[in-house]
Amino acid sequence: MKLLVIKIETSHEVEDALSIYSQDVLHALGTEARKRSDFEQAGWLHDSTVVEMDEIKDLPEDLQFLAYFDQEADAEGLVKQYQAKLEELASYGLAIGQVKITYSYIADQDWNTAWQKYYHVIQFSRHLAVVPEWKDYQPAFPDQAIIKLDPGLAFGTGNHQTTQLALMGIERNLTFPAKVADVGTGSGILAIAAAKLGAKEVLATDISDESMTATKENAGLNNLTNIKTKKTSLLADVDGKFDLIVANILAEILLDLIPQLDEHLAEGGKIIFSGIDYLQLPKIETALDEHGFKINLTMREDRWIGLVITRKPQ
Ligand SMILES: C[S@@+](CC[C@H](N)C(=O)[O-])C[C@H]1O[C@@H](n2cnc3c(N)ncnc32)[C@H](O)[C@@H]1O
Questions:
Q1: Residues near 267 by Cβ (< 8 Å), separated by ≥ 6?
Q2: ipTM (interface pTM)
Q3: The pTM is what?
Q4: Please, what is the average pLDDT of the chain?
Q5: Which residue's CA is the closest to the ligand 1 atom numbered 13?
Q6: Alpha carbon 54 to chain centroid distance?
Q7: pLDDT tens-digit series, residues 291-302
Q8: Domains, the chain
Q9: For ligand 1, is residue 159 a contact (CB within 6 Å)?
Q10: CA dihedral 72, 159, 211, 75 (to 10 degrees)
């Protein structure tokens, strides 16, 4: 089988936005970001970035962004969508550089596993470490929980800042054996973190088949039997209420989730959002306010915002 590769020369300022747009909206099978400066500093790793030093000669001045799709995908259509997205990002004031978008086809073969050699243990906190399935790790504390993970083709190795903001939110707000929903679960990392930190039961939803496969496998790797998966959009067709609802998805998709929250949030429950570019925060604030919610805590790493949200007092 072959893969379609869309190659974009642009600026590092739009790397995260392109990465999440590719995964969440265009359903890319995977992405890579190659920054010339990273190659120059030798070996620094970004989520799913493969650094081979001899490739530097082929790199543009700033960022080469690659997105992989099934060979049947509409290449010309995707190029147009990326062009439009970059124009939108430029309209927010982000540098996009001298954009050049091309596409080609490559053999599928080792792409899935090539990035694995750069995926290491994440000592996330005193309570949590994320450990690739193929690595040995001795907990730094006797009660540090280990999340064993093989993200496969799904988003969520634990390296991304948005995942880490969501993990922080879970750690801080899971204060009793709560019922948790992880919306847009990707690899299942947040669902597994919640279960490992003592959630009673967890429902993990996503629209992607790769995510459902990865989440079931990763729950199994961690011997967890209290994680259920459901392939659905956001919380559509989900019954019941949750004490904690976690969602690390692009702001434009979170806007569709906000109207579904009240029906699914238990009394006294909390919501954790991540994946919000700081420029999109005002839209989220307004929508939350309109639906009876308030922000209790705002976390930020670089451009990314994480929120802890509750209902407004009656
Ligand atoms: C940024 S990734 C987050 C993955 C993981 N939860 C993490 O924090 O690393 C967003 C995930 O949301 C999923 N997604 C996008 N739109 C969705 C929708 N409408 N309903 C459910 N999941 C969605 C994507 O397939 C992707 O797995």
A1: none
A2: 0.99
A3: 0.73
A4: 88
A5: 184
A6: 29
A7: 999 999 999 988
A8: 2-115 (3.30.70), 119-311 (3.40.50.150)
A9: no
A10: -10
